[in-house]
Automatic annotation (TrEMBL), chain A:
Lineage: Bacteria, Pseudomonadati, Myxococcota, Myxococcia, Myxococcales
One Pfam short name: Molybdopterin
Residue stretches making up the 4Fe-4S Mo/W bis-MGD-type domain: 45-101
UniProt keyword annotation of Iron-sulfur present: yes
Family: Belongs to the prokaryotic molybdopterin-containing oxidoreductase family.
InterPro entries the record matches: Asp_de-COase-like_dom_sf (IPR009010), MoPterin_dinucl-bd_dom (IPR006657), Mopterin_OxRdtase (IPR006656), Mopterin_OxRdtase_4Fe-4S_dom (IPR006963), Prok_Mopterin_Oxidored (IPR050612), TAT_signal (IPR006311)
Keyword Oxidoreductase among UniProt keywords: yes
Protein name: Nitrate reductase
Automatic annotation (TrEMBL), chain B:
Protein name: 4Fe-4S ferredoxin
Signal peptide: none
Pfam families noted in UniProt: Fer4, Fer4_11
Record CDD domains: PsrB (cd10551)
Database matches in InterPro entries: 4Fe4S_Fe-S-bd, 4Fe4S_Fe_S_CS, ET_IronSulfur_Cluster-Binding
Lineage of the species this protein comes from: Bacteria, Pseudomonadati, Myxococcota, Myxococcia, Myxococcales
Chain ranges of the 4Fe-4S ferredoxin-type domain: 5-34, 50-81, 82-111
SUPFAM superfamilies assigned to the protein according to its UniProt record, in alphabetical order: 4Fe-4S ferredoxins (SSF54862)
Keyword Hydrolase: no
Species per Swiss-Prot/TrEMBL record: Anaeromyxobacter diazotrophicus
One term of GO molecular function: metal ion binding
Length: 742, 179
């Protein structure tokens, strides 16, 4: 068939119309050249297995490469965490690789710190500058005056650097700003924290209770897969949330609890379960201590008592408690992940942990499983150097002075940067893969702390806000452009996964492994990085572990021998308290001067005309890390402030769905304009924002100025006295029309 | 026997995460501004008595497709398995099909032609699943041949309560929703 332009074809059609109609061939004429299914051509010439870094879940990915470009990403069926499926972030990973706003060259600050003005530099000049500044800090203040903030799997190289350097000050916001209270609570109750991925058995649970967890909007891929699997098999959900979440939409019971009162509800559930003897008495007699004390403690915490606090009807509290108990031991109280809400968070999570024990679900199918790690040999490292003059480990308070914290608090490191607040002042920060201006609460406070530093370097893929405060910015390549260490987290199917560079690094970006090694060479620690590159590091570990490297590289992940994961399969529940018993009553907390059993204490109420500000997740985004990703920003370009429809009608100005408003908090901090979502799906005493929006960084051209930043509006927080987590749901906002001048 | 491709969306499992939309975009090189598939969260009721349906949507590949009738050039046509496809070489982007589609399933691609879900015919004809089905973390999407009595979609459509979007339009949609 002759080729015609579109216009020519129309002209021919018009001219031939009469003749064709006369001949009676009109319909068949247009169909004479039936088209074949057109192939978009995105299948790769080669497909490389690796694992994702769009969030901490690190799912196995198959990257399709065609003509040197990554065309698409699919889930790796060999990898236990993805099982061939990806969440939207994972599927949108090419949007990070090809983000036009990526950091391309090393940058050295050319103006005042925080003004976001830089000059481009060579790698040699930039690395020399960093080395020089760190050595100065060490000489003047000792090696421990350097702190590392890290997020993401590539942080392993930097943790190694810090160990060699001689500083224990390594903090991840994922602890004190996220899962810390949960880790502390489960340690106090069962002896160990949950870690990540959480050892929960969603797929086999018959009732799943979500307390403020946005699972389904928070895309922990494997968990969402298993949640859907459970629902598909008839599992019932109980959802506790001031907002009618997606999970609430599937729930048998949704309890729209007043924000800050979840603990009262949990105590009432315990009251019903114990009073009506629905707990697993046999299991508790065998594995737990403190049942008598707990029973006495909750004797008066009736549904009527809790109803007055939470606003949830007493019958609903009873019915949901009975449903939860009816499914034991396959009744899963989901531990949540982002649990730093009100400053009483460890105790709230203690109640969650205790409830799980009452149901006999720890170490049982459908509850909390026993997990194990795939055995891997480490790299044979030389002995780390001695650091004369450094402070002894015994001189430093555990967990920043919080006796139950078992990780360094990122917020504690920030605090120690303010002069005189700690045993010694921190003088330099290395910030890897975390945008502290959104990850830490009270960015105003973080910005002020940074000004006390002698030096700060940021290593990232994108020019996030924290880069604007750095003295040196170093561009790391994306996970698709680098090798990293092996991943072998504790899991019900022990496995090892490999990250492989799919395409060479773009621009002048480099792998973090290279950057850390080059920096180590310049500060006299090159012998601590004896491998040529990350690939050699991995090959050495594989050889020492007797793993077939070619097989692992071909498959992307190898699964180890099956292990018994629950009592039903022959495993003993994993209880590592001193005496091997579950601590319903915590003598440890009592000795430390805290309540040995969780109790409810009211939170501050909202000032008149204000709403409590809550935040959560969207399935297309990982905090602010992905809001600049064009692929992911397209379906979800900005957040909205959710306002209850009736509360919206009661505002002093008319508010329609989609109108833009400004949020002003109790300290007078103002957000940028944000669209209002007037909805029935939230209580009237609070508003809700998806976290991670409202960027201000000049370099983030897609994300800048879109939506409101909940981090900015979090100008205050409540510190959990038990483990130091920073509760952020203690800020109140009022709404103003966006057009109004301040 | 002639095939009849169909898709079943389980709204109980779907969480409207949008992985289908992103996987489809990268699989099919969908241009910025357009989506071949998308997600919907439909809420009913007033606080606190609420219901929510989450679902993934796309072209319904109607058995009685108004877009095919409306197309002046024959660019919209019924392809293998009854899937409705667009021949970009014939399409002038006149939007007659968009006007006739009751589901809003079509958009104008940046290259000037109309674009929409093809059921990933280029994959399906090679015995692979559509990209959205393959990636869906909740396994809410099932694809298959409705003319095959043994296929999963046939068992779901005939064994479960299903609905289609806007059945009153008389288009006979081939995307079914389990409620």
């Amino acid at each position: 068939m002759a080729r015609y332009t579109r216009r020519q074809f129309i002209q021919i059609g018009a001219a031939a119309g009469g003749a064709v109609a006369a001949s009676g061939l009109a319909t068949r004429f247009w169909g004479l050249d039936a088209a074949r299914a057109e192939d978009p051509g995105t299948d790769g010439d080669r497909v490389v297995p690796t694992f994702c870094e769009l969030c901490f879940w690190n799912c196995g990915v198959l990257a399709h490469v065609k003509g040197g470009q990554v065309t698409k990403l699919g889930g790796n069926p060999e990898h236990p965490l993805s099982r061939g499926m990806l969440c939207p972030r994972g599927a949108g990973g090419t949007g990070l690789l090809y983000d036009p706003d990526r950091l391309k060259k090393p940058l050295i600050r050319a103006s005042k710190r925080g003004e976001d003005v830089f000059q481009e530099a060579s790698w040699d000049a930039a690395l020399n500058k960093v080395a020089e500044e760190l050595l100065k800090v060490r000489e003047r203040h000792g090696p421990e005056a350097v702190a590392l903030f890290t997020h993401g799997f590539g942080g392993s190289w930097w943790k190694h650097f810090m160990k060699a350097w001689g500083s224990p000050n390594i903090g991840a916001p994922s602890y004190a700003q996220c899962r810390g209270p949960r880790e502390a609570a489960f340690t106090l109750t069962y002896g160990e924290g949950l870690g990540s991925p959480e050892p929960i058995d969603l797929a086999n649970a018959r009732v799943i209770t979500l307390i403020g967890s946005h699972l389904g909007e928070n895309m922990h891929n494997t968990q969402v897969q298993e949640l859907a699997e459970a629902v598909g098999k008839g599992a019932q959900l109980v959802v506790v949330d001031p907002r009618f979440s997606v999970a609430a939409g599937k729930a048998r019971y949704w309890l729209p609890v007043k924000p800050g009162t979840d603990l009262a509800l949990l105590l009432a559930w315990m009251n019903v379960i114990l009073t009506e003897k629905r707990h697993d008495a046999e299991y508790l007699a065998k594995y737990a201590t403190g049942l008598d004390e707990l029973t006495a403690h909750v004797a008066t915490k009736t549904p009527e008592w809790a109803s007055a606090i939470t606003g949830v009807r007493p019958e609903l509290i009873r019915e949901s408690a009975r449903l939860i108990a009816s499914a034991r031991p396959a009744s899963l109280i989901h531990p949540g992940r982002h649990t730093t809400w009100y400053g009483d968070d460890t105790q709230r999570l203690r109640a969650t942990a205790i409830l799980a024990a009452l149901l006999g679900s720890w170490g049982r199918r459908g509850g909390y499983l026993v997990t194990d790690k795939f055995r891997l040999a480490g790299y044979p490292l030389p002995k780390p150097p001695l650091h004369p003059g450094g402070r002894s480990k015994d001189d430093m308070p555990k967990g920043g002075g919080f006796p139950v914290a078992d990780e360094v608090l990122a917020s504690g490191l920030c605090d120690a940067t303010k002069p005189g607040r700690a045993l010694y002042d921190l003088k330099a920060w290395i910030v890897y893969g975390t945008n502290l201006m959104q990850a830490l609460p009270a960015p105003q406070e973080t910005a002020a702390a940074i000004q006390n530093l002698d030096f700060i370097v940021a290593i990232d893929v994108l020019p996030a806000e924290i880069c604007g405060f750095a003295d040196v910015v170093l561009p790391e390549c994306t996970y698709l452009e680098r090798d990293d260490d092996l991943a072998a987290p504790a899991y019900k199917q022990p496995f090892v996964a490999i990250r492989q560079a799919v395409v060479p690094p773009m621009y002048e970006s480099k792998p973090g492994s290279w950057i850390a090694k080059e920096l180590a060479n310049r500060v006299g620690l090159g012998d601590q990085f004896p491998w040529a590159d990350a690939r050699e590091f991995v090959e050495t570990r594989l050889a020492a572990s007797k793993i077939d490297s070619a097989e692992l590289r071909r498959k992307g992940a190898l699964v180890g021998k099956p292990i018994p994961t629950c009592e039903e399969e022959g495993a003993t529940p994993n209880i590592t308290t001193g005496d091997g018993k579950i601590k319903l009553f915590s003598a440890e907390l009592q000795q430390l001067g805290f309540e040995p059993l969780p109790d409810f204490h009211p939170q501050e109420e909202a000032p008149a005309g204000m709403f409590r500000m809550l935040s959560g997740r969207a399935p297309t985004h990982t905090f602010g890390r992905t809001t600049n990703n064009r692929l992911l920003a397209e379906p979800f370009p900005e957040n909205e402030v959710w306002v209850n429809a009736e509360a919206a009608r009661a505002l002093p100005f008319p508010l329609a769905n989609g109108d833009r408003v400004v949020l002003v908090n109790q300290d007078g901090v103002r957000s940028g304009p944000v669209r209002a979502r007037v909805t029935e799906r939230i209580r009237g005493d609070c508003v809700y924002l998806v976290h991670g929006f409202g960027h201000t960084a000049k370099g983030l051209r897609q994300a800048r100025g879109r939506g409101a930043s909940d981090s900015l509006l979090t100008s205050r927080y409540k510190v959990d006295p038990i483990m130091g987590g920073t509760g952020v749901n203690v800020n109140f906002v009022r709404l103003e029309p966006a057009g109004r001048v301040a | 026997m002639k095939k009849r491709y169909a898709m079943v969306v389980d709204t109980r499992r779907c969480v409207a995460c949008g992985a289908c939309a992103i996987a489809c975009k990268t699989e099919n090189r969908v241009s910025n501004g357009g989506f071949r598939c998308w997600t919907v969260q439909e809420t009913s009721g007033t606080f606190p008595d609420l219901a929510l349906e989450a679902r993934s949507e796309r072209c319904n590949h109607c058995a009685d497709a108004p877009c095919v009738s409306a197309c002046p050039t024959g660019a919209s046509y019924v392809a293998e398995g009854g899937a409705v496809a667009v021949d970009r070489r014939k399409c002038t982007g006149c939007k007659a099909c968009m006007a006739s589609c009751p589901y809003g399933a079509r958009f104008v691609h940046a290259e000037g032609h109309v674009d929409k879900c093809t059921f990933c015919l280029h994959r399906v004809t090679q015995a692979r699943l559509p990209a959205c089905v393959e990636t869906c973390p909740t396994k809410a999407l099932t694809f298959g041949d409705l003319a095959d009595p043994a296929s999963a979609v046939t068992r779901l459509v005939h064994g479960r309560r299903v609905k289609t979007l806007q059945p009153e339009a008389g288009t006979r949609p081939q995307v079914f929703f389990l409620t």
